[in-house]
Amino acid sequence: MMLESLRGQTAIVGVGQAGLGEANGFSEIEILAQAASRAVRDAGLKMSDIDGIATSSSSATMWAMPVVEYLGIRPKFIESTMLGGSSFLAHLLPAMQALASGQCNAVLVCYGSTQRTAKFGRKEGVRARALLDPQPYEYPYEPLSPITSYALAAQRHMHMYGTKRRHLAEVAVAARKWAQLNPEAQKRDPLSIDDVLAARMISDPLSLLDCCLVTDGAGAYVLVRSDRARDLPNKPVYVLGSATAVWNRQISSMHDLTVTAASESGPRAMAMAGVTHKDIDVLELYDAFTINTLLFLEDLGFCKKGEGGSFVENGGIAPGGRLPVNTNGGGLSCVHPGMYGIFILIEAVRQLRGGCGERQVPDADIALVHGNGGTLSSQSTAILGNQCP
After folding, report:
1. Among 120, 107, 306, 111, which Cα is nearest to 223's?
2. CA–CA distance from 366 to each of 9, 56, 351, 382 (Å)?
3. What is the mean pLDDT of the segment spanning 6-33?
4. CA distance 388 to 45
5. Dihedral sign for Cα atoms in the order 314, 320, 326, 330
6. What are the tens digits of pLDDT across the range 194-241?
7. Residue 58 — pLDDT band, cuts 50, 70, 90?
8. Cα–Cα distance list, 110 to 62, 222, 284, 333 (Å)
9. Residue 243 to residue 92: CA distance in whole angstroms
10. Which residue in 313, 315, 314, 308 sits closest to 293, CA to CA?
11. Which residues, listed in sequence order, are joined to residue 282 by a DSSP beta bridge?
């Protein structure tokens, strides 16, 4: 089976979210189930129709098992590869192959986290990973994980290409402007370049406002074969391309702190989809930190290496700019419950369906979604479109 033969053969037919912000009184599996139920209902299906599952979590190595049990399903296809925040984009290609082969008929991809309100939250998780996921070249020096790693990448980019903190601030301000158009976004108050530059420094050159939110949240989407999608109630969004690349685990093992594996996953996904950069109408990038957006704009080929700063200047990626980027407000202003990748895919689906209200990108037909996991470690790119080739 050639990858190109999978182009457009599967479609996302339902999406759902739950527990965004603070899910007080609920566990992560409970809000996951809420999001899953909404996605299945949005697809016009019943939970009994789901015979494939793709899920992962930083809190449990065998996370698929309790999810299957809690949802009461008996899947024929199970995918639980854990690659951090890019996992829910990396799940796409195995799910597409399972559907194309007839192994299953409807795959639910789902995630939930209560890292903000749970007693065992983000701080405790970081301590646990120091034992369960040792990084021998870094942990002995007690970095402020993960921000220290991203700060290293930002410093290197500034050193090599003359990037300024003001360029990073442009990313945060653009995300906030999109968030102000999104009623689900957690941060919608005004934000200026000067506000970002004056914010408390966390790990030089990244200030508090260069960092993603710490929230609860759950997301889910449903995939079926395209021939079935046409009979379901909502407009299908077709998966045209998908690729994942991993070059390192630790930031100290990167050959070049300014070049990520997105420079591999992006071209592969676009080749599978048969599209070029000029075909992309909307771009959803994993913005755990402001430097991410610059790196991914460059590595995915929307500008040359080192030109990310100038690309985002003067509102280049804000509403009304040259390229719509992170139209929900991103992890910087909308929501970020630990592993954010599923939420950018949901936003892309909503944009292609045309149901985003004030933040809707006119005539959005093709979207590129890019997920990041670890500390610039795993990179996964998907191309989604309104038309089945």
Report:
1. 107
2. 16, 27, 9, 11
3. 97
4. 21
5. positive
6. 999 999 999 999 999 999 999 999 999 999 999 999 999 999 999 999
7. confident
8. 14, 9, 18, 22
9. 9
10. 308
11. 367
Burial class (CB in 10 A: 0-12, 13-18, 19+), 95: buried
Return the number of other C-beta atoms located less than 10 Å from residue 68's C-beta: 17
Q: Evaluate whether 324 touches 174 at the Cβ level (below 8 Å).
A: no
Parallel, antiparallel, or unpaired: how do β-strands 106-113 and 216-225 relate?
A: antiparallel
Task: Name the packing angle between helices 290-299 and 165-179 (round to 10°).
Answer: 100
Distance, CA of 298 to chain centre:
17
With contact defined as beta carbons under 8 Å apart, do 328 and 304 qualify? no
Identify which of 14, 71, 8 has the alpha carbon closest to the alpha carbon of residue 346.
Answer: 14
Positive/negative CA dihedral, 261, 266, 267, 273: positive
* Amino acid in position 283: L
The mean-pLDDT minimum among 43-52, 140-149, 280-289 falls in: 140-149
Q: What's the farthest any 2 CA atoms get from each other in the chain?
A: 56
Length of the chain: 389
* Rounded Cα gap, residues 94 and 54, in angstroms: 9
pLDDT in tens, 336-369: 999 999 999 999 999 999 999 999 999 999 999 9
| Segments in 143-200 forming alpha helices (H) | 147-161, 165-179, 193-198
Task: Give, in order, the Cα–Cα distances in Å from 145 to each of 123, 135, 157.
Answer: 10, 11, 19
Q: Find where tokens 């993603």 sit.
A: 212
First to last CA, the chain: 17
DSSP 305: T
Q: Which of 339, 207, 366 shows the shortest CA–CA distance to 280? A: 366
Name the strand (E) or helix (H) holding 333.
helix 330-333
The proportion of the chain whose per-residue pLDDT surpasses 90, expressed as a percent, equals 90
With contact defined as beta carbons under 8 Å apart, do 369 and 147 qualify? no
C-alpha torsion angle, residues 175, 291, 115, 81 (rounded to 10): 110
Core vs surface per residue 33-43: b (16+ CB within 10 A) or e? bbbbbbbbebb
| Residue 1 clears pLDDT 70, i.e. is over it | no
pLDDT per position as a tens digit, 269-287 = 999 999 999 999 999 999 9
